[in-house]
Design goal:
The complex is a heterodimer of chains A (about 220) and B (about 130). Chain A has about 220 residues and is an all-alpha fold. Chain A contains nine helices and two strands; from the N terminus they run H-H-H-H-H-H-E-E-H-H-H. The longest helix of chain A is centred in the middle third of the chain and has 24 residues. The model of chain A has no long low-confidence stretch (mean pLDDT about 95). The radius of gyration of chain B is 16 Å and the shape is globular. The longest helix of chain B has about 35 residues. Classes of the chains: A mainly alpha (about 220), B mainly alpha (about 130). At the A-B interface, helix 6, helix 8 and helix 9 of A face helix 1, helix 3 and helix 4 of B.
């Protein structure tokens, strides 16, 4: 059976299609992680959600960086921090993480987290069961670093924003995952109407949607 | 920012402070209390969620509730991308972001440090308005 069939009766086919695309690639080798590692990152995020109030990652330096497991305790802790305590990530923590796991690996980890969270959070909010994670496929990461990255937009190097909002290029180092992440944004939020202040493609008015968006960002202490 | 602009496009007058704080009563957006209660419950994923969901369906219908669920889910994802990468506010949004930060006190979030120009804009606005 294809994934997301339970959602299909209630949600627009374009949205389901974007979820299927994410699922098709989640278990494949990426640019910086193997398929097995990518599914382990998704699984770690899933296990940590919903987060109990007393479950904090704490200091990353307290976690072991070497391990025989698919992901080290350190990488698992980074995944949980990115998923649940993102607002704690400052330049100092970023520098520390990059020195340990690398820029590309960090960007892809964050892009995987952002995709699994979008889909799981929707299922949780609707009160329906989360989709089973795909089976990982064997293979090596491509280690492809995009050309023409710039600094000054984010902690991470990104593509030049040109006329795109910074958030659209934020995880450029994981180019394919960043594109799939933005596919979710288009399907789940704006469609082709981002620049329109009056929306007709959604059942909520645009101010109602933006109110939900603003409160969500406030709850996550996201200034952007 | 888009809340203000889209409300203006519909000739609705809203108080943006309540988008960040409070229960949304009287903020000027239709069914704002049910939308905020659902958004908060979906964030906490606690025992209040099913009631918040039912109350929102009663206000905006099943499809409206699904829209709200889609929006809160995708914005959590956007927040993760924004703050894990440390992006700063886009140049053309800085001034309006500074105004909104002054209204909502969102500049108190630690992630405001990723956009250091906002502090300068707030300072300029305060001087301009003699505050």
């Amino acid at each position: 059976m294809k994934p997301f069939q339970s959602l299909g009766k209630r949600i627009d086919p374009e949205i389901i299609e974007s979820f299927e695309i994410v699922w098709d690639y989640l278990g494949l080798p990426g640019s910086w992680w193997t398929g097995e590692q990518r599914i382990a990152i998704a699984s770690e995020v899933r296990k940590s959600n919903p987060r109990k109030l007393w479950e904090n990652v704490g200091k990353l330096e307290d976690y072991a960086k070497d391990s025989d497991e698919i992901l080290s305790p350190y990488v698992k802790a980074v995944a949980r921090m990115v998923a649940n305590e993102t607002s704690k990530i400052n330049q100092h923590i970023y520098d520390q993480v990059i020195a340990s796991i690398g820029e590309g690996e960090y960007a892809e980890l964050a892009a995987v987290v952002s995709q699994i969270v979008a889909i799981d959070q929707l299922c949780d909010a609707l009160g329906i069961e989360r989709e089973k994670l795909p089976t990982p496929k064997e293979g090596k990461p491509t280690l492809e670093r995009p050309d023409e990255l710039v600094t000054g937009v984010a902690f991470l190097p990104t593509f030049a924003a040109d006329k795109l909002p910074h958030v659209a290029v934020s995880l450029s180092l994981a180019q394919a995952d960043n594109a799939r992440r933005m596919l979710l944004v288009r399907a789940m939020y704006s469609g082709s109407s981002f620049g329109e202040m009056i929306w007709e493609h959604r059942d909520l008015s645009r101010p109602q949607s933006e109110l939900v968006a603003a409160r969500t960002s406030a709850l996550n202490e996201c200034f952007y | 920012m888009l809340l203000s602009s889209s409300s203006a496009a519909l000739d609705e007058s809203i108080d943006v402070r309540y988008a960040v704080n409070g229960n949304g009563a009287d903020m000027g957006v239709l069914h704002s209390q049910q939308l905020i209660a659902f958004t908060e419950a979906a964030h906490r994923l606690d025992e209040t969620l099913s009631t918040a969901r039912e109350n929102l369906i009663a206000a905006v219908g099943e499809k409206g509730m699904i829209d709200a669920a889609l929006t809160t889910a995708v914005f959590r994802s956007l927040n993760i991308a924004a703050d894990s990468s440390g992006i700063r506010i886009d140049d053309e949004w800085e001034e309006i972001a500074a105004y909104l930060a002054m209204e909502t006190e969102a500049d108190q979030f630690s992630t405001a440090a990723n956009s250091p120009n906002i502090g300068n804009h707030i300072h300029s606005i305060k001087i301009k308005h003699g505050k």
